[in-house]
Amino acid sequence: MESSQTTLGSTYGRSPVPMRPVGDPGPQVWSVERSAELYQIRGWGEPYFTLNSAGNVEVRPDPAQDRGIDLYSLALDLKARGLDLPVLLRFSDILRDRIRGLNEAFAKALVEYSYAGAYRGVYPVKVNQQRHIVEEVVEFGAPWGYGLEAGSKPELLIALAHGRESGALIICNGYKDTKYIETALLAQRFDKQVFVVLERIEELDLVFRASEKLGILPMLGVRAKLTAKGVGPWADSAGDRAKFGLSASEIVDVVDRLTARGMLSCLQLLHFHIGSQVSSIIPIKNAMREASNIFVELAKMGANMRFLDVGGGLAVDYDGSNTDFHASKNYGIQEYAYDVVSAIHEACTKGSVAEPTIVTEAGRAICAHQSVLIFEVVGSNDLHFGDPSPPDPNAHAILKGLYDTYKNVVPKNVQEAYHDASQSKEEAQSLFKFGYLSLRDRSRAECLYWGCCEKILGLVRRMRYVPEELQSLEKVLASIYYCNFSIFRSAPDSWAIDQLFPIMPIHRLQQEPTVRATLADITCDSDGTVDHFIDREDVKQVLELHPLQQDEPYLLGLFLNGAYQEILGDLHNLFGDTNAVHVRLGEQGYHITHVVKGDSVEEVLHHVQYDPEEMIERVRQQAETALRAGQISLPQLRLLMRHYAESLGEYTYLSSDD
Ligand SMILES: *Cc1c(COP(=O)(O)O)cnc(C)c1O
């Protein structure tokens, strides 16, 4: 279902919260400013996300315009229109700005180094293949001849359906079969430059055969297996054992075999990719140096080298720390562009080789910022023990001992008190096991133990140095906030590889968040939790949140999730695609340009080969049997069948009218 160009609400001209002068200790009462610091929003959010004076997150999709969209109001607007949460908001203007930023950075670097070649970026389709996204990439990239990269045959089919811009490149990577290669060669006859990049030496024979059969000379590239590696979880995309790429001897072999057929002029592009989220600029510089030299050598060997494709890897600062930590990056897009251009410029000058067109395949850095998932907290499990009452005079000794421990917790003895309490709890458990303690007394003992832990934690939080064994208390005593979303669907990398995404409340930011919590999704999987969050230093295990209020929804945003998460997301527990909404800044206010309705229960059931009609029929037959046997009444049968049929057509997530 789609609706186009509905104008909703208006934008807000509220000014962003000003920075505090250095050295100012800040007000003692809570403030929006303190929320900004706590959630690091300046680090990861600028220039797109900020806080407004109403205490809400504000999106500034086009940094060139002094206008923002209040995220909380937008979410309520959508809810009012029947677009239930969780909802994925895609801000087209952010995507446009990312593409513009990359292209302008390279344009500036070309001028800086008086570079004779051009820059032609491509967007790797695998990062987010959603049609509306790819369409927008092509639209926004048109002024720069921005192209597409395919990593598989289906992605090539997508790329060919777009990319009308003449001059834009289509780069074909990934495993290739004959059909993939033949399709690419035939598409060269369109108004496109389609490159087949050899990722494995075996592909060369397929290319020769296809070329002969079709009478079309291929535009060929080779992917080099560099010794320079990236860093972090994707570092193994390069190096000797990398899955893809040709070693030096294989590249020489390609040159020789092309030469033998008089086809060396087909080889025009050198490609490498050292992995995703390369958080430090050093490996990028090293890879550039190595690849530039391979490029120059290939040119000298007689190949018609016109393109150097430096792959992806441009990182995103998910935690806002601006460091080489894996969730961050220690360089900006401009520095990246300078380093790429200068390395190839230097090598070509030294080798007296013509400067090639530079191609980048940045994916994450283009697509991550444009989307935000908004979801609602639907309940919480707070561990709160408060001040326990003293045990009866004739209570079990173990309870009296625990109570004494509780009373005597002071800053000086937190560690000792923790040991005493833990030992008593274990004793209570073993007394119970052997029948010396009642279930009620065991429960009292546990409450006293948790009371001790809570009191200890209160003191530990004020300590400068926290003993290691007490560091886990924060997490153990954290509240659990249950959220109406599926981590497996909406942020699978958080589950699979512990990737960090900024998560924070999108409103109430003028209030102090007094609760520390982990998040649990509504899948029944105990892995469906978020218990690692961005922090100024390292990672934190709990997130500061506000106490839930009876009559007001509490909405959280998961930010920077526009790259990879949508397609890696799965149907765990049959939670389907969320609603997605494309938002653009309009003349006054914002427009909803596309609404992509999330999956209904029926759709996800189809996916696992169930036929909803038949399911209804089977349940009806069982209900009829139960009715005949007098086990249910007619109104009960009617209610069951209505619930069953209605649920099939509904959103897979919890609906707010329950
Ligand atoms: C995944 C991939 C990219 C995109 O990488 P990012 O880290 O998202 O920029 C580019 N090129 C190739 C060959 C890839 O496999």
What can you see in these coordinates?
With 658 residues, the chain is of the alpha/beta class. Among the domains are: 117-362, TIM Barrel; 602-648, no CATH class. It is 38% helix and 15% strand. The protein contains 22 helices and 24 strands. The longest helix has 22 residues, at 439-460. It is globular, with a radius of gyration of 30 Å. The model is unreliable at 1-24 (pLDDT under 50). It binds pyridoxal-5'-phosphate.
Put the structure in a nutshell.
The protein is an alpha/beta fold.
Under the CATH scheme, which class of the domain at 117-362? Alpha Beta
The coarse overall form would be globular
The molecules bound to the chains, other than polymers, are:
pyridoxal-5'-phosphate
CATH topology category name of the domain at 117-362: TIM Barrel
**CATH architecture type of the domain at 117-362:** Alpha-Beta Barrel
- Percent range for β-strand residues: 15-25%
Oligomer: single chain
Q: What is the rounded distance between the termini?
A: 24 Å
Briefly note the structural class of the backbone.
alpha/beta
Spell out the CATH superfamily of the domain at 117-362.
Alanine racemase
Largest sheet: 11 strands, mixed
- The count of β-strands is 24
Average pLDDT level: 92
Helix content: 25-40%
User: Cα-atom Rg, whole angstroms?
Assistant: 30 Å
- How many helix segments? 22
Low-pLDDT windows of residues = 1-24
